[in-house]
Amino acid sequence: MQNHKKGKLIIFSAPSGSGKTTLVRYIMAHLPRLSFSVSATSRLPRPGEKNGVDYYFISADEFKQKIKEDAFVEWEEVYEDQFYGTLRSEVEKIRARGDSVAFDVDVKGGLNIKKIYGADALALFVKPPSLAVLEERLRHRSTESEESLRKRLDRAAYELSFEKLFDKVLVNDDLEKARKDALETVRDFIDKD
Ligand code: ADP
Ligand code: 5GP
Fold first, then answer.
1. Domain coordinates of the chain in residue numbers?
2. From atom 12 of ligand 2, which residue's Cα is the shortest distance away?
3. Cβ(144)–Cβ(38) under 8 Å?
4. Model confidence pLDDT, tens digit, residues 96-117
5. CATH superfamily entry for domain 9-186
6. Which of 12, 75, 117, 175 could form a disulfide with 20 if both were Cys (CB 3.0 to 4.6 A apart)?
7. Is 41 helix (H, G, I), strand (E, B) or coil?
């Protein structure tokens, strides 16, 4: 029998270093009908990041061209001169298969996607236990220069003020608990009509 269920949209937003990537990867490994919307960005790849898998890495000029072509569902200049955007082509490709879409986007992008898709979308806010723990995790991840780290921490306090606008807050303190909570929440939302 055919599956007539329409795919849903699952949004993960939070300050950088809160654990979005960690939780999204875990959930995707458990939910085969959930696919990741690969965003475009003008920032440089980190060691280990792959083009077309983690992001589509493009120049700032190419990014601006895509804005003109209306290629984005939403886009933000998350940090100065660093653009990030959700590609219409990604969302359409995944939804055409009838699958649900997972997004890892900043807080404004997350709320914009929620506004567009309404009840079909679940907006999750991943919250670190504290700003001090967030800093410790970002330092431990060893992916950022001191300048990039400062940019991320400066923005984090502002982003945390958006928490109340989300459908649900997932506190990422104990990783096992956060994984379980995230998986149950997403599974329930995808399964309901
Ligand atoms: P984001 O995608 O939000 O920037 P990451 O998923 O990259 O965040 O997580 C930031 C760092 O914190 C990574 O090194 C990750 O392994 C680590 N981390 C994530 N969740 C936890 C947790 N619950 N406890 C300890 N470390 C964590
Ligand atoms: P990072 O550079 O750490 O990968 O991402 C920095 C921030 O940009 C994170 O908050 C991440 O969620 C956000 N981000 C990634 N892709 C998009 C996108 O397509 N749109 C928006 N608005 N934010 C994004």
1. 9-186
2. 105
3. no
4. 999 999 999 999 999 999 999 9
5. P-loop containing nucleotide triphosphate hydrolases (3.40.50.300)
6. 12
7. strand
